[in-house]
Design a protein that fits this description.
This protein has 7 helices and 7 strands; from the N terminus they run ααβααβαββββαβα. By secondary structure, the chain is of the alpha+beta class. The strands form 2 sheets. Strands 1-2-3-4 form a 4-stranded antiparallel β-sheet.
């Protein structure tokens, strides 16, 4: 066994020496073609290393404010209450209009009771739809990148708001589904309609003309009067003042 081990070592040692000698061969001792290949391989390896070291991945810039800043919030309690009120009114209309009224009509015919149940279904639905249609839940303003960097930059942007500033105004449909209206700042104007319920309005004639007949009409009147935003509440006040200045 000892003899076999010594023979194996003597067989492997010249092979190792040949391998090390081939690795240490310089470009000068090789022919021109091999010299070109070896030098090109060395250049490629060094180039890839320098490229990876010279171009590290830069971290994304950090902003103090999001791209869509919430400048108006009506309050979670008010939004929840009005959503429940709309759904409850819808259920009352369905119950009195399609269950109670037909039952009395089959029993008594056209009577005063049928008239009362019909009005009980129609009047609440019309009143709630008329008074709560312009209710605004949220208002988001799209900020440019420089205005998102800090509060000071945001104040500078708000002081001189451009007329093409985009606002996303979220209202509620009749079934309490959110509806987002994209409005430019120059299109809004202050008003006092529906016994003080509506305080903002915009012209939607062009938008309604572009819509098809089976689509909902665009929201033209808004009720945004009590703001509960805790972060930068002064932005909404600046927006209202900018609307008033343009109107004058």
């Amino acid at each position: 066994m000892l003899v076999l081990g010594v023979l194996r070592r003597t067989q492997w040692t010249p092979l190792r020496r040949n391998v090390t000698n081939l690795q240490n061969v310089s470009c000068r001792s090789l022919p021109t073609r091999q010299k070109f290949r070896v030098c090109s391989l060395r250049f490629e390896t060094t180039a890839t290393k320098t490229d990876t070291q010279a171009s590290p991945k830069l971290p994304p810039p950090k902003f103090a404010f999001p791209e869509r800043l919430c400048v108006y919030h009506a309050g979670t309690g008010r939004i929840t209450f009005l959503a429940c009120l709309k759904l409850t009114t819808l259920f009352i209309f369905v119950f009195y209009g399609f269950v109670v009224t037909p039952a009395y009509f089959d029993k008594e015919g056209l009577s005063a009771t049928v008239l009362r149940t019909s009005l009980s279904a129609i009047i609440p639905m019309v009143f709630v739809a008329y008074t709560t249609a312009p209710f605004v839940s949220f208002v988001h303003m799209r900020l440019p990148p420089f205005a998102r960097q800090s509060e000071e930059m945001l104040r500078r942007f708000v002081r001189t708001l451009p007329p093409h500033t985009e606002l996303d105004i979220t209202t509620m449909s009749f079934i309490a589904k959110p509806r987002v209206s994209k409005v430019k700042l120059s299109d809004l104007r202050k008003t006092n309609e529906r016994v003080g319920i509506v305080n903002l309005a915009c012209d939607t004639a062009a938008e309604n003309a572009a819509r098809k007949w089976y689509m909902y009409r665009a929201v033209a009147k808004f009720n945004a009067q009590s703001n509960t935003v805790s972060r930068a509440p002064w932005v909404w006040e600046s927006i209202l003042s900018a609307i008033g200045k343009r109107q004058v």
